[in-house]
Design goal:
Layout lengths: L5 E10 L3 E11 L4 E5 L6 H9 L6 E6 L2 E2 L10 E4 L11 H11 L4 H14 L15 H13 L5 E5 L7 H18 L2 E6 L2 H7 L2 E6 L2 E6 L1 H6 L4 H6 L4 E11 L2 E6 L3 E6 L7 E6 L5 E3 L9 E12 L3 E7 L5 E7 L14 E6 L5 E3 L2
Parallel strand pairs: 3-8, 3-9, 6-7, 7-8
Antiparallel strand pairs: 1-2, 1-4, 4-5, 9-10, 11-12, 11-14, 12-13, 14-20, 15-19, 16-17, 16-19, 17-18
Helix pairs in contact: 2-3, 2-4, 3-4
């Protein structure tokens, strides 16, 4: 990474009563990066975003933006702007007046204000609605007004606090694509806070997964999904089968495990293992069949279908294997007949390649 646009150094935020919202967090965020802070409610992600913006103050540590320490810089003088979950657009103003407001109150010349407002509206594809008021617009359009109002100030860093959570599912999907396109168009750093894993995976170039005020892992979406650092990350990012295992021996990178419900499995791992570990495998990596599968090295087990949920493009199956092990399986619905092709109570084989499994030691 070249010199980061945002550098967070050993930042903590403690509140009276012994509550630690952010605990010794260090992150470097690159110029023009779309970066996500992801985690469950109460993990500290919004508090961290507010400290970047200057709306909250670190108890310890430093925050640099553009190489400058922000400790003594108030929010209105920082090279950042924030888009809130509630949009916070002025209902009595037109779209154009909403977007130009920040420039007008800071004394930007009228011609410059007009030009930059028009540019910002064009960025978010709202030029044709400049004369409308927010109550005449959809939720997605109002969100784009809030984005334009933030972008018109030309911040070095745009901060987005759960910006899509108030939208319905289809509009949220559309806005994810629009935000990604917009970030690539304007070429500035976006930092988004979200608890929605799909949102983070589909938009961000890198993600910091937070838990109890600390950062568990920072990686690309694909790395987080396929190579989670620990059990928390594996469980939080997508769906996963977590199978308890006793480590029998480790020879180089090959680890032999005795798993609960699936017998012996050899898994590759770069980490040194103790006596116990967890074998993780994603539901889409598991396959089902009604006859015993053939193939060297396959891990296979008899199971009984407990539940089948149909989602259109996929079906989700829960199957009971040996020793009370529940396996979650995703099946692609590839034919017009629809469905997974199995019913509750049916006996099936579940199988997978051990190279698709991951050993978690933390």
């Amino acid at each position: 990474m070249s010199a980061p646009i945002v550098s967070i150094r050993n930042v903590s935020r403690r509140y009276p009563g012994g509550v630690t919202a952010v605990d010794n967090v260090s992150i470097d965020i690159a110029q023009n990066e779309f970066f996500a802070l992801l985690g469950p409610s109460g993990c500290g992600k919004t508090t961290l975003l507010r400290m970047i913006s200057g709306l909250d103050t670190p108890s310890e540590g430093q925050i640099f933006i553009g190489g400058e320490d922000m400790a003594l810089t108030p929010p209105n003088l920082r090279p950042t702007n924030m888009v809130f979950q509630s949009y916070a657009v002025f209902p009595h103003m037109t779209v154009q007046d909403n977007v130009s407001y920040g420039l007008r109150v800071t004394g930007v010349a009228a011609d410059e204000t007009k030009r930059r407002t028009a540019e910002a509206l064009e960025m978010v594809k709202l030029s044709h609605l400049a004369a409308r008021k927010p109550d005449q617009m959809s939720g997605g359009q109002r969100q784009r007004v809030a984005l334009a109002r933030a972008l018109v100030k030309r911040p070095k860093v745009l901060l987005l606090d759960e910006p899509l959570s108030a939208l319905d599912a289809k509009l949220r999907d559309d806005m994810r694509l629009e935000l990604t396109r917009l970030q690539e168009t304007v070429g500035i750093t976006f930092i988004i806070v979200t608890h929605d894993q799909d949102e983070a995976l589909s938009m961000a170039s890198r993600i910091a997964v937070m838990n109890k005020g600390a950062v568990e892992q920072i990686a690309t979406p694909a790395e987080l999904y396929e190579q989670p650092r620990n059990r928390f990350v594996a469980d939080f990012i997508g769906k996963v089968n977590l199978i308890e295992a006793a480590v029998l021996k480790q020879t180089g990178k090959k680890v032999s495990c005795l798993t609960h419900g699936l017998g012996n499995i050899d898994v590759t791992s770069d980490k040194s293992c103790g006596d116990k570990a967890t074998v993780a495998i994603r539901p889409e990596k598991l396959k089902i069949s009604t006859t015993e599968p053939k193939g060297a090295g396959l891990i296979k087990s008899r199971a009984t279908v407990r539940d089948v949920a149909y989602y259109g493009d996929t079906s989700h199956i829960v199957a009971d294997a040996a020793d009370g092990l529940n396996l979650h399986i995703n099946v692609q619905n590839n034919t017009r007949t629809g469905g997974a092709g199995v019913d509750r109570g049916q006996k099936i084989w579940v199988h997978f390649n051990p190279t698709d499994a991951l050993l978690l030691t933390e």
